[in-house]
């Protein structure tokens, strides 16, 4: 929204957000708040009518009912159809129905990747405008002092493989841990669940890491891993690349399209494939440095300003 607002200087922009997110909006965007909620309750709050708007854009599928506005919905992935094993039975049924209903009501459907656009078309017969995500403003290479400060704060080993993200069914942190063990290098996990019972044995769990520390944490790692079974876009490895990290990721979903030549893709979701992808970066400084250089260039090709311009055109609005 920060990138979109300058492109529509004559528009009165409002955002329907949960109360705890209102402070994150730019000053030029008015907050329309809803109670903090999740699951079905969140969807119900999002469906409440919005009056007086020319365009209503849902950034996460849910659309209001009884609106005369142009309805725009962004879909991040179709995992509830493609990876139903990652959802409980009741939640899966509800999410699939919500996606079908909301996307078919939308006048314009935006997808965060070509892969997701293809899946929407295959499953629902709808065409999408592709509006890629981009690294956050904080995602940039840190200096040596910042890296050392983070090393000290989290008591990090000298060399380690890192995976950042929630420990959940679609993220195969156990595979990363196995590969690191095979290569005799510590495996560090950061994010929800990284210190809990579902974290693989032998890993170093950091728990929640403040966003301000992430660039230095990525840079401190010998390799940043992102083992996943399904991805509609995958922003964490892109942000790691923007911070100058050497990234190894799964070749699933949108990841090959998104990372380009800025990351190494494991050619199979197996232990031998992951060991083969990680080993050169752990052992060869020149290969790692070359990948880090390519990573920053690849991440720089994604920008919120470009995505905002595609979004403005999708609205059918003129600039100025």
What does this structure look like?
With 320 residues, the protein is α/β, with parallel strands linked by helices. The chain is built from twelve helices and twelve strands. The strands form three sheets. The chain has a six-stranded parallel beta sheet with strand order 9-8-7-10-11-12, sandwiched between helices. The chain has a four-stranded parallel beta sheet with strand order 3-4-5-6, with helices on both faces. Strands 1-2 form a two-stranded parallel sheet. Strand 10, helix 8 and strand 11 form a beta-alpha-beta unit. Helix 5 crosses helix 7, helix 6 packs across helix 10 and helix 8 crosses helix 11. It is globular, with a radius of gyration of 21 Å.
What's the helix and strand layout?
Layout: E1 13-18, E2 29-34, H1 39-46, E3 55-58, E4 70-75, H2 79-82, H3 89-105, E5 108-111, H4 114-124, E6 129-130, H5 144-154, E7 161-164, H6 173-182, E8 187-190, E9 204-205, H7 214-220, E10 223-226, H8 235-242, E11 247-250, H9 255-259, E12 264-266, H10 271-283, H11 285-300, H12 304-315
Parallel strand pairs: 1-2, 3-4, 4-5, 5-6, 7-8, 7-10, 8-9, 10-11, 11-12
């Amino acid at each position: 929204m920060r990138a979109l607002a300058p492109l529509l200087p004559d528009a009165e922009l409002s955002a329907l957000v949960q109360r705890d997110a209102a402070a994150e909006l730019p000053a030029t965007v008015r907050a329309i708040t809803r109670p903090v909620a999740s699951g079905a309750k969140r969807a119900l709050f999002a469906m409440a009518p919005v009056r007086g708007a020319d365009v209503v854009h849902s950034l996460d599928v849910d659309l209001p009912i009884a609106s005369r506005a142009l309805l725009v919905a962004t879909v991040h992935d179709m995992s509830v159809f493609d990876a139903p094993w990652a959802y409980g039975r009741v939640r899966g049924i509800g999410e699939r129905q919500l996606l079908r209903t909301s996307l078919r009501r939308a006048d314009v459907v935006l997808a965060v990747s070509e892969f997701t656009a293809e899946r929407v078309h295959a499953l629902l017969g709808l065409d999408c405008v592709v509006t890629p995500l981009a690294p956050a403003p904080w995602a940039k290479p840190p200096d040596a002092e910042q890296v050392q400060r983070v090393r000290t704060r989290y008591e990090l080993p000298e060399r380690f493989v890192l995976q950042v993200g929630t420990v959940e069914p679609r993220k195969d942190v156990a595979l990363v841990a196995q590969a690191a063990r095979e290569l005799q290098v510590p495996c560090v996990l950061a994010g929800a669940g990284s210190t809990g019972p579902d974290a693989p044995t032998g890993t170093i769990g950091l728990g929640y890491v403040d966003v301000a520390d992430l660039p230095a944490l990525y840079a401190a790692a010998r390799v940043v891993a992102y083992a996943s079974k399904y991805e509609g876009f995958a922003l964490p490895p892109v942000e790691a690349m923007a911070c100058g990290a050497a990234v190894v990721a799964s070749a699933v979903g949108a990841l090959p399209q998104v990372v380009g030549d800025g990351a190494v893709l494991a050619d199979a979701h197996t232990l031998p494939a992951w060991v083969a992808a990680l080993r050169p970066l752990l052992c060869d400084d020149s290969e790692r440095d070359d990948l880090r250089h390519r990573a920053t260039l690849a991440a720089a090709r994604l920008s919120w300003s470009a995505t905002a311009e595609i979004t403005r055109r999708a609205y059918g609005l003129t600039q100025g």
